Q: What sequence folds into this?
């Protein structure tokens, strides 16, 4: 176990990852991750706009896990009496003069098509088209009264300096592991 943990640490270091969390995720944990990240970036003298951008991407990525992960853990794992938490992984790093945030979680295979279509549509847009699309979707969502729903990937695409890179790794007949990377 310890030997493989050391190898895992070295692998993360080679990938530029300086923060990684895997397990049940809650809103309060998301705040703690954000606070830790902000402190680290301030020590590295990152600009306020960079800190804000990375923080926003982490929030959106973790929200994606909370809302869409099909892997759940009992709340008792985190010391709560009832309910369950979504399970996922978040890694944050720095490579080629840019921060990156990568997130992943299990999803049911029947969700892949919708996710893939949404993400491929965003990959094919330039920044101006993404901004217009965001405004259109926001108006549409407001009219339907579903405050902000479906805007997460668009928000991520707006903040990313590259098209969103994503993957679906088949696990079995029912589930796949969905992951994405945002470069800020």
A:
């Amino acid at each position: 176990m310890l030997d493989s943990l050391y190898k895992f640490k070295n692998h993360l270091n080679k990938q530029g990852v300086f923060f990684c969390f895997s397990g049940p995720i809650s809103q309060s944990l998301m705040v703690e991750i954000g606070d830790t990240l902000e402190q680290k970036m301030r020590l590295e003298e990152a600009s306020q706009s960079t800190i804000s951008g990375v923080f926003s991407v982490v929030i959106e990525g973790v929200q994606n896990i909370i809302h869409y992960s099909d892997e759940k853990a009992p709340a008792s794992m985190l010391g709560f009496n009832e309910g369950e938490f979504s399970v996922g992984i978040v890694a944050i790093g720095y490579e080629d003069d840019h921060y990156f945030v990568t997130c992943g979680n299990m999803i049911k295979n029947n969700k892949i098509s919708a996710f893939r279509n949404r993400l491929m549509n965003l990959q094919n847009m330039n920044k101006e088209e993404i901004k217009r699309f965001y405004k259109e979707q926001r108006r549409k969502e407001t009219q339907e009264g579903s405050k902000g729903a479906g805007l997460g990937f668009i928000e991520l695409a707006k903040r990313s300096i590259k098209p969103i890179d994503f993957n679906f790794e088949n696990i079995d007949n029912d589930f796949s592991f969905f992951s994405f990377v945002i470069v800020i």
Q: What stands out?
A: Residues 13 and 93 are 9 Å apart (CA to CA). Confidence is low (pLDDT under 50) at residues 143-148. Residues 48-68 form the longest helix (21 residues).
